[in-house]
Amino acid sequence: MQQRADTYPKILNVVVRYLLMILLAFLLFGLIVLIFGEDPIQSYKEIFTFTLGSTFGFSEVIVTMIPMLITALAVALPWRVGLINIGGEGQLYIGAAFATWAALTFQNSPAWILLPLMMLLSMLGGALWAFIPGYLRAIGLVNETIVTLLLNPVGAMLVGFLIFGFWHSPVDNVKTANFVPAALLPTFFGTRIHLGLVIALVLLALFWFVMKYTRWGLEMRAIGGNPQAARRNGIPVKGYLTIVMSIGGAIAGLAGMAMISGFYRVLSLNFSLNVGYMGFLISWLARGQPIGILLMSFVVALIITAGNLMQLTRNLPYAVINILLAFTLFVVLARPAFFKRKKA
Amino acid sequence: MSLLAILGILSSAIFSGTSLLYATLGEVIHQRSGIVNLGLEGLLLVSASAGFAATSVSGNPYLGVLVAMLAGALMNMIFGYLVISRQANQLASGLALMFFGFGLSALIGKAYVGARINGLPRIPLPGLSDLPILYTSLFKFDFLIYLAIPVAFLVWWLLFRTRWGLGLRAVGENTDTAFASGRNPRLIRFQALFTGGLLAGLGGAHLSIAYTMNWSEYMTGGRGFIAVALVIFSRWQPLRAIAGALLFSGAIAFQLLLQSAGVQISPFLLETIPYVLTILVLIFWGGTRKHPAPASLGRVYYGSE
């Protein structure tokens, strides 16, 4: 630890290191592709020409990135006060359910009423779901890590319950009817990029600003550093723990709303596909830093978008892209020694 | 409702819960050594697919079981490299392992989707042979089901009645103290992961080779997470894990029972039972201040001075 403090790497070094690590992950993945009788060079070529070589591909990467950015923030914020929120997945589902209720109930409202209402409700839903573990932790009853984790499947199943029991469309009982146009987030430039991107970037900037320039940010960092000392300095630690966790949940809930209103345009069973967990990983790998979150989300989104392509053109199942994703995560988590900067 | 229907429901609940008991026992061993493995879901998938593929290729289900166990142990060795050797965060590494499992199992299983295998042979319960065939056919189980409860006792014996188990639990409580008393925390944690991986691998094997007898992507359906919940529910005690698995099986049986009785209650709500109960149990412990978790659970061991 001592050593790291005095050789604090500059931004460029960090970027180079991450790029090298991602390169290593790609090499490992190439090996797997080779073992299963495909041509890795061709696969890579397709991955990059599709995702970075065309406007459409690039826009798809951005679209995939939106919920990841938001769910990563939902983890990064509580982390600042020392709370571990693995519950983004569940909070996202509950948020989406709350928003769906509004979308189905007030179908005749104009968009300028309906969309803000959906956003607010999704944040309320996510906040409620995160309030449970946050409050239990604040009063010293239960560790928040495990409760957030356990509430994930419960959230997903409640959505299943609501869809099957009440909301399913006449033709298909695993999803609701398509949302009315007023309940859809506007999209830009004729692509599938939606307003969620703006929401995500605003939240990211807000997070950075609050942490760096406000009293709240200072107090939150104080709690994260040493809760005992913070309490003795008169910071209301219990209140902070509960509220910050709930805000984290509210952000995750908003991610759920952005996914169903901006992307899927319908609430369906298991729609999230583990985005909440990806947010956790991204936030962890980026060490909760806004720029890092942006970069890591982009990398993960690129890999997943490429996965959609490989499924179309290659003879490999979609889930294979999880291997590339996992290798990238493994390599970053393992922080290989040969990429470490030598001591100055 | 007929007795036959009830027995049928019981039988299917036993089949469904067995893989969960093995997975829970594996995770009990990991966590007793101080390691949380959230990648259990991925591990189960990989051992289910590897076991199924091996059975399909060789035609021998016992070989499939063996391959599944080894696959589980190998998955845990990757995990161990990250969290023990490289000192990475356990939660993040576990989730990464889960994604790896999603991908690898799909790749392994791809050629075997829809394949038919000879599953593990089913042996009728002794003493029931003079019952009508309709009944005995419901109580023919494979050897993994018969072994599940003895294995739970074996794990209990290993953890609480052997020197190895004592060392393992010591590492889970306090790595420095364990080190000071001449134990090697890293080695012991690797051993715990290996053993736990073998057990969880049995769970994956039972799922694909004995229970469903086919392979499909994401077939574990969250069993890995239920197992993590049940470890807490069973207070890190292998014998209580039996009760935990029974609870899960019971919830499934109850659900089937209600359905066949025509009662309208959503299966989604019933599936939340194991999670909600675990949370309630946690709250109850928090109130009584009797939390039995291993003290250094989730902590990275950086080495002792």
Q: Topology of this protein?
A:
The complex is a heterodimer of chains A (344) and B (305).
Chain A: H1 2-6, H2 11-35, H3 40-52, H4 55-80, H5 88-105, H6 111-138, H7 144-167, H8 196-213, H9 215-225, H10 227-232, H11 237-264, H12 275-285, H13 290-313, H14 321-334
Helix pairs in contact in A: 2-3, 2-14, 3-4, 3-13, 4-8, 4-11, 4-12, 4-13, 5-6, 5-7, 5-11, 5-12, 6-7, 6-11, 8-9, 12-13, 13-14
Chain B: H1 3-32, H2 40-58, H3 61-85, H4 90-109, E1 123-124, H5 133-136, E2 140-141, H6 143-161, H7 163-173, H8 175-180, H9 185-211, H10 223-233, H11 238-260, H12 267-271, H13 273-288
Antiparallel strand pairs in B: 1-2
What would you note in describing this structure?
The complex is a heterodimer of chains A (344) and B (305). With 344 residues, chain A is mainly α. Chain A has one domain: ABC transporter involved in vitamin B12 uptake, BtuC. Chain A is built from 14 helices and no strands. The longest helix of chain A has 28 residues, at 111-138. Chain A is globular. Chain B is 71% helix and 1% strand. Chain B has helices at residues 3-32, 40-58, 61-85, 90-109, 133-136, 143-161, 163-173, 175-180, 185-211, 223-233, 238-260, 267-271, 273-288; strands at 123-124, 140-141. Chain B has a two-stranded antiparallel sheet. In chain B, helix 1 (3-32) runs antiparallel to helix 9 and helix 10 packs across helix 11. The mean pLDDT of chain B is 87. The interface between A and B is large, with 47 and 45 residues.
What labels would you give this structure?
heterodimer, A: 344 residues, mainly alpha, ABC transporter involved in vitamin B12 uptake, BtuC, 14 helices, disordered C terminus, B: mainly alpha, 13 helices
Strand order of the largest sheet of chain B: 1-2
Note the run of SSEs of chain A as H and E. Answer: HHHHHHHHHHHHHH
The overall pLDDT average of chain A reads: 85
Shape of chain A: globular
**What is the CATH class of chain A?**
Mainly Alpha
Average pLDDT of chain B, rounded to a whole number, is 87
Q: How many helical elements of chain A? A: 14
Number of domains of chain B: 1
Largest interface: A-B, 47 and 45 residues
What oligomeric state do these chains adopt? heterodimer
Largest sheet features of chain A: none
Strand content of chain B: under 5%
Distance between the termini of chain A: 15 Å
Considering DSSP H and I runs of 4 or more, what fraction of the residues of chain A is helical?
Answer: over 70%
